[in-house]
Structure formats: C-alpha cells, structure tokens
Amino acid sequence: MSRIEGYGRIDRSRHVTVTVDGAAYTGHPGDSLASVLLAHDARPANTGVKLGRPRGIGASWTEDPTGLVQVEEPFPEPMLLATTLEATDGLVARGVNGQGRLSEIPDLARYDRLHTHGDVLVIGAGPAGLVAARTAARRGEDVVLVDDRPTAGGTLTGTETIDGRPSLEVVDEIVAELRASPNVTHLQRTTAFGHYDDGFVLALERRTSHTDDGGLARRSRQRVHRIRAGRIVVAAGAVERPIVLEDNDRPGIMLAASARDFLHRYGVLAGREVVVFTSDDAAYAAAVDLHDAGATVQVLDARPTAPAVWSRRCADRGIAVTANTHVHGTRGPDRITAALVGPERREVPCDLLLTSGGWNPTAHLFSHVGGRLAYDPSLGAFRPAAPRPGVEVIGAADGTFGLADILRRAGGAGGADDAPHADDEPRDPTAVLWRTEGDPARQFVDIQRDATVADIARAVGAGMTSVEHVKRYTTIGTAHDQGKTSGVIASGITAELLGLPVEDLGTTTFRPPYTPVAFAALAGRERGDLFDPVRTTPIHDWHVAAGAEFEDVGQWKRAGHYPHPGENMTDAVLRECAAVRTSVGIMDASTLGKIDVRGPDAAVLLDRLYTNMMSSLKVGRVRYGVMCGNDGMVFDDGTVLRLADDRFLVTTTTGNAAAVLDWMEEWLQTEWPELRVRLTSVTEQWSIVAVAGPRSRDVVGAVFADLDVSNGTFGFMTWQDTALDGVPVRVARISFSGELAFEVSVSAWYAAAVWARLLEAGRAHGITPYGTETMHVLRAEKGYPIIGQDTDGTVSPHDLGMAWAVSKKKPDFVGRRSFSRAQNQDPRRKQLVSLLPTDAATKLPEGSQIVRFADDGRLPAPPVPMLGHVTSSYHSAALDRPFALALVKGGRERIGEVVGVPVAGELVAALIGETVLVDPEGARRDG
C-alpha cells in the first residue's frame, strides 16, 4: 500500500470497495478510482489504442490522457476517466483500450437541466475564482460560482500560507461566506464545458457521482445548467505540460503536480523511488512534498542552472538536484523501472518519473467565444491576448502562476482592498522544452492516440503546414482529453520541424465541450417517449381497444389501419377503402393543425399568405388554400373556414402545424407588424371526426337531428353550427376522400362521446373505422397531393395541376413573383401525374425512379436519364388494381405515354395518366 498517514482529505473512518478488472480494492469516501488503484500499486488494464502497449495513470484530473475505464455498476457508462470518477461502494469498472463500448443495459438514471441567471459567473473555485466570487458577492451582485472538483480550492494543497494561515483554512472560510450569501449560487462537481455568445455558458453538474447508488433512487444523476450572466470570469487554472521523451507512455510516468495532488488530496504516494525531470520551478514543490512523505527523490533540471531557493530547500532534505540534464527515455517491462539520463543514457532506477515542462493556461472557455491567444515566450505557452467584451480571465488561466500575484490580481480586478495575502515566491523562467533527443517513433505526443513525433514528421513531410491539418492527419488532440497535454506540444514540435516560431504557427481551435458530456445528460428528460413528445387524440384509447395499428405523423400517434383477425395491412386497407366508397367510414382527424386567425386585418393577412383569395370568402363557407414559400414552391395546404368578418379557422397538415403557425407569425411580426391580427393554435382544443361515404349524410343527420343535411341546404364546402345535448358542434362539408363527407368538430373534452354516437348511428349502415393508410389511398385515387410526400420543396402549385388555386386577381402574395421565373415556367418541370402499371398487378415502390421504356425491357446504358420518381403507390379497391402518383418531367404532355420503372431488377411498364382516377366529375363528392 502507498497510503500515507497524515495526508489527504479523504474520510479514513469509512471504507468503500471497488472492483476493477475483476479485482476488489478498498478505498475511502473522497477517493477517486485512480487514487484507490494507486494506493494499491495497481492500474486499469489499459493498453494503447493502436500499438497495444501498457498504459497507466498519467495525471490526477481531466488532463489524464490514459486512465480510461468502462463502468458497469451501479450505472453503465463507457469511457470515463478513473481520475475524475469518485470511488463509491460497489463500483464495478474495467479498463478500456482507448475504445469503449455502449452498454447493453438501459440507463435508468434521471437527467435534467436548469436555467440559471446572474450578474457574474465565475468559472473555477481555486484561489483566483474564490476571491473574485467573494468580491462580487460583497458588492451585492448575483454570483454563480462553478467548479469541476468535488471541493473548492483548486490546486491548493494546504502547504501554502494565506494571511498567515494554512491555505485550505482560508478556502473553507471563503466558501462558508459564499454559501451563507443569498445572492450566490455555488456549484461544485460542475464543469463549464461550453462558452457561447452573449454570456451563455453550459455547465454539467455531477449530482450523484459520489453516492453509492449513483442517485438512481433519488435525484437526477447529472444536470446541465444553462447559465446566462452579464459578466463571465474565467478562473479555470492551468494544465501542466509534460516533456516528450522516448518511451514516455510507460505506466509510472506522471505529471509532477498530479503526483503532488494525489498525495495531498488522497494521501497516496504514487511512487517510492522518484525521478523528477523538469524545466519549470513548480515541479520542485512536488519533489519536496514527496520526499517529506517518505519517497526517495532526485531532481533533474533541463535548465542550465537550478533555481537557488528550491536548490537550498532540496539540499536541506538531501534531495539531489542536477541541472543542465535531460531524460531521454525509460526502461521497464510493463511499467517504468529506470529513467535514461544524459547523452550516455545511464539508467537511473525509479518506479515513478515525474515530468514538468511548464504550464498551459486553460484558455479553452475564452477561446470558445473567439478569444485570441498570444504566445508568451517566458511561459512557453499561449495565453489570452486581447480581452473579449464581458469576459475576464484571471489567475493561472491568464498565465499568472505565483499565488501572491493571483490573489492580488483577483481581488484588485474587482476593486477590493481586502484580498487575501500570500508571500511572493521567487520564480525562475520556464525553459521551453517540447522534447528530448530520442527515437521519434517512440516519442509519444498524444499517448491516448498512440501518436508520436514520427507521425508529426510524416504529416509535415506530406506537406502539412497548418497545425489544424497536422491534428487531423495524426489524430493528436482528438481523444477524450481533447489535447489538454498534447495540443500545445504538437504545435511546438510541428513548428520546430517546419523551422517556424511557434507563435507564428499557433494552436488548434478549442471547441466545446471542454470535457466529454454524456448524451443522456444533453438529452435530459427528453428520452424514450419524451425524446419526441408523443401526442394522442382524445379518441386514442378507443383506437387501441379496436386493435388499431398506429403510425407516427409528426408527434401524433394516428391509427393507420384496423386489421381484423387474419388480415395483413393490405387486406385491411382494401376493406376500409371499399367501405368508404360503398357505404360509410369514420376517421379520427383530430391531429389536423388548426389555427384561429382573428382581427380586423385577418382577411388581409390570409390573402398575402395564400395563393388564392380568402378575403372574398363568405361567412359560413370553406375554401381550400395553398401556401408557398418565397421561391413559389408549395409549403402547406389546407382548408380555411370563415367564421365571421374578422375571424377565420385555418387548417394545416398534421406534421406542418407548428411550422405553419411559425411561418405566419414570422410574416406578421417582422414584415407586416401594422396588421391587426392575432394567431392562436387550437389544434388540441378541437377534435375532428370525418364521416365519409354515400351513407354519411344518413349518419350525420341521425346524430344531429336539428341539422338539415340535405344537399340543397348544406352544400359542399360550407359549414354550420349545431349542438348535441347542449354541447356546441361545428359540422363542415369537406372531403379528402372524394366521397360525400362531413367533418364534425367538437371540443376535445367531448370527442370520445361524439365518436361513440356517430358509430352507433352508423351501425345500421355497417360504418367502418378507417385510418391514415386508407385515407392515403382514397385521396390518391382523387389526385389530392399530400404535402411532403407528393412534394419535396421543389414543386409549385402549377406542377401539381393546381393553377386554379393561384389567384390572378390579387396584386401580390408570398411566392407570386417566383412564378414568373423562367425556371418555374419551364414545361419540362416535374409535374404530378398518375401511373398505371400495364400488367395491372405490380405495385410500384415509392421512390422508384422513372425512365424511358424500352421494348426489350432493359435499362438504357448509363448514365441513365431519369424522368422522375414515384411519390405515392397503393392497391386500389375501387380500381381493382395497383396505381401510383408520380412527379415526371413534362408529365402532362406525356399523358398516354408508357414509361419504365425499375423494380427488383426488371423494367415495369407503366402508363402515364390524369391524376384523378375515381369519379373525375366529382358527382360523388358533391352528393
């Protein structure tokens, strides 16, 4: 065991047991999975993704490029970092080799989101962030403070002194003040992973990752906070930069600050025989602390001279410090056993090699909003350059690394005169050292991707001169860690190979998310049936009881057909079609979009949006209308009922209801705000029951005895109000089947009762419920198009044969000018026609291409010229044969022509005809 008494913030009075790769390990609350494994001198069973070389744990937090595990219990989740995964009792995980697998067990945890607003958002609860948050809170600002660690304090270890006291005591004091402040929202275990324009930040809170059951039985496991703040303060710290050397991927090689973090946070000594290789002062603190905890330590400094203050501290402890020395490689079978030092590569025994080549400010969130980075040669790092409006970067994230400077600037930035104080520490400049000499094929830049210096050299040799191109060529920086330790090093090595200053080459672009975010967290509660809300009509339960097979239309569950025992869909649809054509059928049409349009200028608005005239429609009448986009292509269609001089009811297709309302509101609010019109969706308030067929008049008349349904009184495309047992009902003569038909509209509360009354009245006539599949066949037999099926955004009303629905009197409407474009008047445009397979037996697959027919039944030589495609295809009970609708180039001029449709390797002959195949005179519809 490498657990050191007197160190760490874990609760040693309690124990947890975790299982990794089949072996059980004991830890304590507050441990990470990585610290438990290191305490037992173990590691996940990981290997490199390409080369299969063993991998260990290389850092203590999100910058670790290697320690990936797959969690099996208590929640299934692939590819999590052992360093960020909190150890809980019963946790079961296994190492993964850079590639996880999706769990076959459903994730039963809850996820949600929360909207949060504040005057200032502080990202990071290290010393800079804590001081900035406290300063803002004392000014009375609403503060949101987020930090990704379980506890505040950032990289403070407790060995530092602030205001003459241990640093963590001061941290606890500030945290207590913030928690007590009513204007502060303080969120630990919360990672700000995306920064967007106008002060918008997305942050992921891990709410139950520290509990034994993952929170499955209580609250949401993770929460996405959608934070909007007037000012963003980025205090996200910095990431230590490794030094690339030969065989630097072996287990037992770690960042120096991470080894220090494991010691002070978890009480874990990551090695007993330690070599520290550094070009920066910070690694000396790790050397001193590990020595004081019982390790044997020696320091190798790449700089010409070692820092005087740290050299004295090391000398006082007997720690050997050697300057102007490089580590060139490592030895060891499955973990490091020796470092190869100096040009002679002498072996220095060790079980832990710590590297530190300086620090890279965590500028990701600053860059997400277009913040520019500039190279600072004194740091060997890129730091924020020109400020961004509303964004302030402080502390190590801005390249300030001395604790005294961090505290002074964090407090001073807010105008505070009571900022905590720390003594200044002398700091020698960092020496920029991207790599030492060695075999480029064994010098790993991105350890997770097994990408080496040799890979970068190949990219440069292939002509890559942009670091963005090198990234994609080599995959460096594309793993879970997104290049936190490898990105800037790749820029430095690429610049060396190109002979350019690294400041001229720059870095790759930082993009959200900063750390991986589970899809489940992004989905929140919109999962399963809530992923796309399921909408059902008030008559849905009846359809279920009747054995309906449903289809999804928009978000609605619509009855597709009602199969009897032994019937397949084709049989059921043919039976339902025959019933409507010969007697009477009933359909739930409640899902149609319905928009109430009212106001003095309602008629003006509709005239501008529809291709035909609506202002001339009389009260009590109904008119079919078509809407077009600016390009003159059909956008939607439906009926318009005029309810009063200043009020209309517009119906839309089921799937387009929301889009049509949005379209109407966009024009009303942005282009014609002077119009006095109000638009209200009433789709769910009104249910519609369609009764269609030769006996429909008998059924409707029997239910609504006070309503004169005779043809002379109640003509086609009119509506009348009535009542049923005191409940208001509106009945309209509208037909989408081509038969005599009525649409009965009633408040959704009474829909099921009205449905039942109509069924009872139609029992004597053999009334048959029919669904959308039957509706599709009936309307296609009449040549009625379905928008989105017989159109594809490139079809105009004229292409559909609906020139009659385009007004020649109105001066203008949306899309009118596009009709005059030469392209829109081209007679070779695709036009809607019918297709009748000449064998009267083949049902043409929808989407099939249409070509010229050849007598020999063979396709022309490629490239085969396409004439169009099949849009709708059905078996017809009325025609006793299959038929189809299609969009064909110059289709109306081709009526009577035989074309070919490739089906299952054969060319099927089909005759082009008029779109109306049943009752072309409309006698049945008109009653």
UniProtKB/TrEMBL annotation:
Keyword line: Oxidoreductase
SoxA A3 domain location: 442-525
Domain (FAD/NAD(P)-binding) ranges: 119-369
Segments forming domain Aminomethyltransferase C-terminal: 830-919
Record InterPro entries: 2Fe-2S-bd_N (IPR042204), FAD/NAD-bd_sf (IPR036188), FAD/NAD-binding_dom (IPR023753), GcvT/YgfZ/DmdA (IPR028896), GcvT/YgfZ_C (IPR029043), GcvT_C (IPR013977), GCVT_N (IPR006222), SoxA_A3 (IPR041117)
Residue ranges constituting the GCVT N-terminal domain according to the UniProt record: 539-810
Matches recorded under SUPFAM superfamilies: Aminomethyltransferase beta-barrel domain (SSF101790), FAD/NAD(P)-binding domain (SSF51905), Folate-binding domain (SSF103025)
Membership in a protein family: Belongs to the GcvT family.
Protein name in the entry: FAD-dependent oxidoreductase
Species assigned in the record: Actinomycetospora chibensis
